[in-house]
Design goal:
The complex is a heterodimer of chains A (327) and B (306). Chain A has one domain: ABC transporter involved in vitamin B12 uptake, BtuC. In chain A, 72% of the residues lie in helices and 3% in strands. Chain A contains 13 helices and four strands. In chain A, helix 7 packs across helix 9. The longest helix of chain A has 27 residues. Chain A starts with a helix and ends in a 7-residue tail after the last helix. Chain B has one domain. The chains are: A mainly alpha (327), B mainly alpha (306). At the A-B interface, helix 5, helix 10 and helix 12 of A face helix 4, helix 9 and helix 11 of B.
Amino acid sequence: MTRETLINSALALALLLVPLLAYAMDEPFIITLATKVAILALAGVGLNIALGLGGLVSLGHAAFFGIGGYAMGILASHAQSYTAITDWPVLIEGTKSMPVIWLVAVVASGITALLIGALSLRTSGVYFIMITLAFGQMLYYFAISWAAYGGEDGLSIYVRNSFPGLNTLDPIQFFAITFVLLLAALLFSARLARSPFGLALNAARQSPQRVETIGLSPYRLRLLAFVISGMITGLAGALFADLNRFVSPTMFSWQTSGEIMVFIILGGTARLFGPVAGAALFIILEHILGGLSEFWHIYLGLLLLLVVLFAKGGVIGTLAGREKAHD
Amino acid sequence: MSLLLLAEQVLNGLQFGIMLFLMAAGLTLVFGVMGLINLAHGSLFMIGAFAAAAVAGATGSFLLALIAALAAAAAAGALVEILVIRRLYAREHLDQVLATFALILIFSESTRWLFGSFPLFLNIPEALSGPVTLPGGIQYSLYRLTLIAIGLVVAFGLFLLISRTRLGIQIRAGESDREMIAALGVDISKLYTIVFALGAALAGLAGALVGAIQSVQVGMGEPVLILAFVVIVIGGIGSIKGALVGAILVGLTDTLGGLLLPLFFSLFMDNASATSTGSALASMSIYILMAIVLVVKPSGLYGARA
């Protein structure tokens, strides 16, 4: 067992034990914080597939996070008002069932990622950063002007959606759902990195010409990575909306994209558990510093600056050392 | 729809575009010469607006406010370049994105801490308030017309600076081969600081000028920054000419889209749904423009290569 695996297991265990302890001590707020960590980490795991594995610096992942959120918001709001989403050409009704909502969220964000990716991957480098940022902003303005679903005010859902056999209103049960999904995504992402596709993607990041010479298309590899990445982030968006029982255009904002990226960097780029460590650190900081000062973002900014300039591996890199070459 | 309204909206689009140009010019210069993507450029726009509002509030002079905006943004730009940005030139884009994202957090929250969360107001100077009548009987705001004029003068000045002066030669040389001009004895790190401060000053000027027609508040810079990115993607990175053409295209598309799209949809829809579809599409129109340019010419209208 390498040191990184050890740290990863400790992190997973901590994320499981903290809410269980909080449950035993009857502290529902801490369970909610842990749920938030799990969901934001899931969004980060999604982005990490594009960013860490594929080297695609997407500053527009809020687009998928928001689409996941709105998939939940739209389906659940129709279900709670007993109105159909559309009755032509086929009748489509809302739903309060989480698995159905997740499916819709994943498919919708996958299709959007395919469209955005197909256009933005025609370019690379700074262009790619600026274009993904711009498309994210486009969806943000679209959500604001979409009056049918709350426009700028967003949508409130009164009761959390249901999952067969569980009481999702109980914080610890909802945490369990998000924790299992996060573990599944981590497992998937670890398998993906070692699969032929993951290896080819990694190679395309390091040397696109060589990948092309052996007959693979870097464009297709990257596009597929971008789509998978968007789907996972979209799922996280649906869960995040369910956690808050609220969706608003803020989920689409460029700050959201930036924050998802910050989780990865704080934790350690291209590290499997980087997003988990980063999201946990972010929520803890938000909590401690936010309690000390209203202007805690100044300290967050300074910390981020220090990590980027001097501690490139993030939390996991600092703890585990540079075992894994990823440059 | 009257032609007068259309003409007025064209002028509004032009004014908006010219202000975007001031932002995009700095960004594209910094990218062209130093290869740096700077998300904190919007913060410099905000600093210019706040400096102008504070000085105008204290002295009542708009001219002093403009000078303060230029000075504050240039000083903030130079300071940030020396303290942080300098360490990022050799880094990958991801590091640049994150470090400048961190700078946004620091700048925005510090400004909120200094000035509070409530917007400030910067008044249009007495001499420039009110409308003028243009040939053809168009009534148009004198202040906005002045903005167009200032922007065009700055654009012309920038062209002269780049193509006719010693500094301009160094900038162009820096774009094509930085090692070579360092070997020829040009102090490259001083040149970088000057270019960065110049870009910052342009952003600060834009912030102050626009601050008089909208409210001056924390977070005002980033939406403009993202539009400036769209401008650069359309125009091509590193090209000042591309930035000017892209900015005017984006300005016109945004303003005219908001006016014409609802009218277009009302040809075959009822009024209410035409207005909502039209305005939703209008909010996306510049990004659609960007997508079209990307399909036709991925490196932008005047870009060398992607």
